[in-house]
Specification:
Blueprint lengths: L7 H12 L1 E6 L17 H6 L2 E2 L12 H17 L3 E6 L2 H9 L9 H14 L1 H11 L1 H4 L7 H14 L3 H4 L15 E3 L3 H18 L1 H11 L14 H8 L5 H24 L4 E3 L6 H17 L5
Parallel strand pairs: 1-2, 1-3, 4-5
Helix pairs in contact: 1-14, 3-4, 5-6, 5-8, 6-8, 10-13, 11-12, 12-13
């Protein structure tokens, strides 16, 4: 686990090559086909060398959920183990990790009609107005959300309209987590200032690699709209505004970097509360320490009587 741009993928590939592992991606954006540049998706050569699961499984017009991820991830993990290989679960979508390891709150499933109605209201009134509505029915949750956090405001209003109960009141009622078997958890936690530098450099490289052009091509191939989960992804959301003429190139860069920093801040908050062995990716000892820990865990699992 780790925030965006922390070096998870590089370390995961080292582990995979050393221990004959297959990667299960924990990334809510890499599930979408065509979103390659802005998600730092592994290229074809990498995926040929190390199998990656839950990448490119949906069209960008589709929707995915933490519950669907947990179901699909367990199936992938079981299949990898059945082949005698090591499942390596890698990513930064912390809600997906929580769904996999702790189970989910007992919430009503998504309802396309209700979501469509909320999206229509947002188009007419703006998300800040819907945030104000949320503040009346669920002030606890509204206080934790920005007035422009469309995805979370939408889900909170949807849950209330379907159940009549505030989302914050339901979040403590958890369904059982799937049985994963023996696990070893690592979190990469870089220095914040260094991470900000890495985020800026990576966003610049994405722009240079054709992020805007990629989105322009996707808009010609699919019936996309800005409210779709794929288009709310950091980077694509800002590129959409650029293509619509609402921001210029310097604003695209600045807003993309700022949004990525905000994402990393939320990821840090989750990670601080998540049990895991924490490492600084800038420390030269981290790679060897992680490989050694995995080696010991694999040996213990193979020879339990030797513990």
């Amino acid at each position: 686990m780790g925030p965006t741009a922390s070096g998870k993928s590089a370390l995961a590939l080292d582990i995979a090559r050393r221990f004959d592992a297959e990667v299960v991606s924990v990334d809510s954006a890499q599930v979408f086909r065509g979103l390659d540049v802005g998600t730092a998706k592994p290229d074809a050569a990498t995926r040929a060398a190390v199998p990656h699961h839950l990448v490119d499984i949906l069209e960008p017009t589709e929707r995915y959920s933490a519950a669907a991820f947990a179901r699909d991830a367990v199936c992938a993990i079981d299949a990898i183990r059945a082949r005698g290989r090591l499942p390596l679960v890698v990513g930064g979508t912390m809600l997906y990790f929580r769904a996999l390891t702790e189970g989910l709150s007992a919430l009503p499933p998504a309802d396309a009609a209700v979501r469509g109605a909320i999206d229509a209201e947002a188009a007419a009134r703006g998300w800040p107005a819907l945030h104000a509505e949320l503040a009346r029915i669920d002030p606890v949750l509204a206080a934790r959300l920005a007035p422009t956090d469309a995805q979370r405001i939408q889900r909170a209003l949807e849950v209330h309209r379907l159940s009549g109960v505030p989302l914050s009141a339901l979040q403590g009622r958890r369904q059982a987590a799937p049985a994963l078997g023996p696990t070893l958890a690592f979190a990469l936690l870089p220095d914040r200032a260094r991470l900000h530098e890495l985020i800026a450099a990576r966003f610049d490289s994405m722009l240079a690699a054709g992020l805007v052009e990629e989105l322009a091509s996707l808009r010609t191939r699919y019936a996309l709209e800005p409210g779709l989960p794929s288009m709310r992804t950091v980077g694509y959301r800002q590129a959409w505004e650029f293509l619509e003429g609402r921001i210029d190139a310097p604003q695209l860069r600045a807003s993309g970097i700022a949004a990525t920093r905000q994402l990393a801040k939320r990821q840090y908050t989750w990670l601080r509360a998540t049990p895991a062995h924490a490492y600084d990716p800038a420390d030269a000892r981290t790679r060897d320490a992680v490989l050694h820990a995995v080696e010991r865990a694999v040996a213990d699992a193979s020879h339990p009587s030797a513990r």
